Amino acid sequence: xxxxxxxVDSAFLEKLGQSPHKEKLTEYLALLKPLDEQGRYxxxxxxxxxxxxxxxxxxxxxxxxxxxxxxxxxxLPLGEPIQxxxxxxxxxxxxxxxxxxxxxxxxxxxxxxxxxxxxxxFSYLLNDLIEDEAIxxxxxxxxxxxxxxxxxxxxxxxxxxxxxxxxVIGNYKMMNFAWDKRYEPLSVELILQLHxxxxxxxxxxxxxxxxxxxxxxxxxxxxxxxxVHTPPPVAGIVTRINEWVRWINQSHNDPAHPxxxxxMIKAITLHFALGYEHPFRDGNGRVARALFYWFMFKNxxxxxxxxxxxxxxxxxxxxxxxxxxxxxxxxxxxTYFIDYQCSVILRAVTDFTTAYQKSLAYAEGYDQWLxxxxxxxxxxxxxxxxxxxxxxxxxxxxxxxxxxENLKCSYNTAATALNGLVELKLFEKKKLGREWVFFLRPxxxxx
Length: 447
What we know:
By secondary structure, the protein is mainly α. 55% of the residues lie in helices and 6% in strands.
């Protein structure tokens, strides 16, 4: 369990002029800043171990808190009774915002696609990345389906066989729904629709698809069964949500205006708000993350269609949970949650950019190999692309249906391309159920 910060008020700082504190005034005043020596915005739970010995812990915290309060930016009203979520724009957040502005906009994505040129294999990479958020978000919520099995299900359009697989399908549909609805304003109805699309058909008695919870028995527990968050009461859910819906729909995009706020900060805040309110019986985390994506899509950050933050959240679920708790226990100082999300987004965008650069480098090397091998003239354009994807490892199995979808061609064209690769002894095929599945021949058996 985390240690909540002590309550302090401005009068508490009067102790600085009293013994024995005034003898250490210089050491105390050195703490009058929002960040630590390494530029980190740490919670009381961490800071209390870092202050010089002999100093009063509560007084140290009072100084840090005073320095933070004067820099607070007010965000949105939350909870019952209402508290205002606030934050401090930290160096970490500024780095993340800069990277997102340069590498994750629609314009940046169009540049990537244009720079790749006619090498259509990039569409395979993008379609593969679309699946990652749906799968990892489900795994973060406890789905036991492996990534390999989940990808196979999505690529082959196979019907789900288990509740965990239905969870993956639901998340996949919800992410696509968020993309399709990116031009709509936020509303209570849109939030309910997201939930319905994401959880319907998994266990309707457990989730109550598209309906808010009807009682106050929903709590958030840690891995040991301890209650770590009790949501606001069910009475007033719609009214409270409408309050922050209005804030989300309000424009803060004018850099010349004093209330300017970067869209990603608003998206992360929306993520927090849904999780804090916890309006559904189950599925709150998935809807919260989908709303983050919806707002990024809405504000022209299309590359986030292919950037999976849940992969990194899944790898460190304790840190994700604590970032919520640090904010909640420190008077809704959302800086902890915003900073953690910014650190995750920074890594996720970097991973996406790296994948693109590797794809570009591989495409250039593949073209040279294709010409040197003499295969260029023997293969159609579609066959060259499929072979490139297979050799690059972006997909291991192919069907006429998924080739048709990825390369935007007819079913017959896709089937002809795949069977031609078999005839050239570059691919093999086997029948799974009613479907032919094609795959690259093992190395050393190619002609």
